[in-house]
Amino acid sequence: MKEVVMLLIEKNKTISTMESCTGGAIVNAITNIEGSSDILKFSAVTYSNEFKIKMGVDKNIIDMYTVYSIKTADEMSKNIANFTNSNYGIGITGQINKVDPNNITNENDKIYISVYDKDNNKFYNKKVDAINATREENKKMIVDNVIEILKSIIESDV
User: Are the C-beta atoms of residues 18 and 54 closer than 8 Å to each other?
Assistant: First the structure.
């Protein structure tokens, strides 16, 4: 994550996150890096559908595609970027080795990652499978995937 933070500082870009199943692991990784206060605007952990909706996620998207979908992750990343006027927004939703009886889906153990590039109005998406490990190890795997996506986007941003 240090490389990502340094790239954001170098390019004078900002970032915000709206996380669900990662419970703040992305923002924690960011704030572990010195200088992160120059690039991080805001972070929200929205575990419940209620607070995803309060943060701007369209209820109709959740109803149509489920809370565990790339469409919901896109809503999360775009809304957090717009809410904070950040260059990049990250949205993470999914299930980590647990079925949610309140949000039934046919795709258990899937995590949906969305990075929204506000300057170019473009989404970068990835769907990853939860690994057969602890929640902590799964969160680390998700953070690693987010780092990979962010480095690719930021390095190519001219």
Answer: no
Q: Which residue has the tokens 């990979």?
A: 148
Residue 98 sits in a domain of what CATH number?
A: 3.90.950.20
Mean pLDDT for back-to-back runs of 10 residues, the chain (158 residues): 97 97 97 97 96 96 94 98 98 82 66 97 97 92 98 88
Number of domains the chain is built from: 1
Range of the domain at 18: 2-156
User: How many Cβ atoms are within 10 Å of 118's Cβ, its own excluded?
Assistant: 20
* Cβ proximity of 17 and 89 under 8 Å: yes
Query: In one letter, which amino acid is 135?
Result: R
Neighbours of 59 (CB within 10 A): 12
Output the CA angle 69-71-73, nearest 5 degrees: 75
pLDDT for res 106? 58
Answer whether 55's CB lies under 8 Å from 79's CB: yes
Instruction: Read off the amino acid at residue 155.
Output: E
Say if residues 10 and 41 touch (Cβ distance below 8 Å): no
